[in-house]
Amino acid sequence: MRRAAELGLEFLAGLDERHVGAATDDAGIVAQLGGPLPDEGADPEAVVEQMARDFDPGLIASAGPRYFGFVIGGQLPAAAGADWLTGAWSQNANLHPLSPAAAAAELVVGPWMLDLLGLPADASFGFPTGAALGSTVGLAVGRHVVLGRVGWDVEARGLFGAPEIQVIVGEEVHSTLLTGLQYLGLGRERVTRIPSDEQGRLRADALPSALDASLPTIVAIQAGNVNTGAFDPADAVADALAAHPNAWLHVDGAFGLWAAASPELRHLVAGVERADSWATDAHKWLNVGYDCGFVAVRDEAAHRAAMMSAKAAYLMQDAAHRDNWEYVLDSSRRARGFVVYAALRSLGRNGVREMIERCCRLARRLAERLGAAPGVEILNDVVLNQVLVRITPPDGGDADAFTRQVMTRVQDEGEAWMGGTTWHGLGAIRISVSNWSTTEADIDRTAAAILRAAGR
Ligand SMILES: Cc1ncc(COP(=O)(O)O)c(C=O)c1O
Q1: Is 123 touching ligand 1 by the criterion CB < 6 Å?
Q2: How far is 341 from 374, CA to CA, in rounded Å?
Q3: What is the DSSP letter of 254?
Q4: 172 Cβ closer than 6 Å to some ligand 1 atom
Q5: Could you identify the atom of ligand 1 that is nearest to the CA of residue 256?
Q6: Sign of the torsion formed by the C-alpha atoms of 152, 155, 161 and 166
Q7: What is the Cα–Cα distance from 421 to 13, expressed in whole angstroms?
Q8: Cα(43) to centroid of ligand 1, in Å?
Q9: CB 230 within 8 A of CB 269
Q10: N or C: which end of the chain has fewer CB within 10 A?
């Protein structure tokens, strides 16, 4: 373990300067390490050393300061340390008798999370693998509640012969939320999609005509569009649902919900606290290592009723203690509360606010640097930490192809890494500034790398 710690520290120390992308794909590593399992074991230290050497070419410096792909956070030093401790402790975080410490960690940090995210202080909470399964939890509780109100026990009877549920999402719904609906038997395609505006915000004015007040209804909105960072108008959606007799409102705020931690940005999430359930990630913008999500539900009894209902004499549950599994989909699992404790305790309220605001400031800086160059267009309003960049070739030719080429050149050069997307039919480089360790100098190096690749 000491050797592993040394090797881990070497990796972390090199993060800032290593080629941000990978040097090989999976096949290169499989060729090195694959094949039949040897009959004889190997020395543990040698195994760890071999892993550090042979997996290394396929590692991405995604925890480093110039990785801007997808929406990926780094790892705060305290969170990294806590993660190593969590590994050493190897607690199963499902039941209280299996780890009072893991139960306590969730009880300590859950209220901190609710407070930072501006959610009701008495909401119940759980720590799933990520926002995707956090939203699946929220939707499952919504399914339980809206069907329960019309006399249907979905946990006991499933959906066979159940009353119809109307499911409404925005046109820009995240793909994983549809997967959650798929898991729950609500169908990824059987949803009503409300049109979005040019930034990807659900158009609340189109909601009333789509709503059928006679049907049990689940509406899912999002805080933070994965491309633009834009927010669905939670207040207006909650207003539209106010008169509905049987509706559940869920917010997918994988990264955007963190805007609530900043007085400067809080206006973006106005109204989200009126929803019934919320999902976000700690492994994105809170910068804890993978994996850690967060889900909160207004109605604790409903939350527990819709989740893990395994009961058996040997499980030794008692009503006086928290069993973490009553709030998520999984049973045996890693104790995710410890890293969240470390991240939040090391940052404090002010540190969280500063980190979120810094990332947004850096995203604006990058957008300004790039947008000032000829032929470079910023496609979105940079309201949060996301920037969409489109670049026209010097001869005015195919901007889609050229933008992709620039992205590939930057990736190959290795100074920074960012992915691509298509926004309203236009090819774009997609930049997400989510890492605690990114500095202004990193942003300027990245802007220079992009402009160099574009020949500007
Ligand atoms: C809006 C939104 N929802 C859900 C997810 C899925 O999050 P995870 O993969 O952490 O579960 C993402 C990931 O980027 C997201 O941006």
Answers
A1: no
A2: 46
A3: T
A4: no
A5: 1
A6: positive
A7: 31
A8: 39
A9: no
A10: N
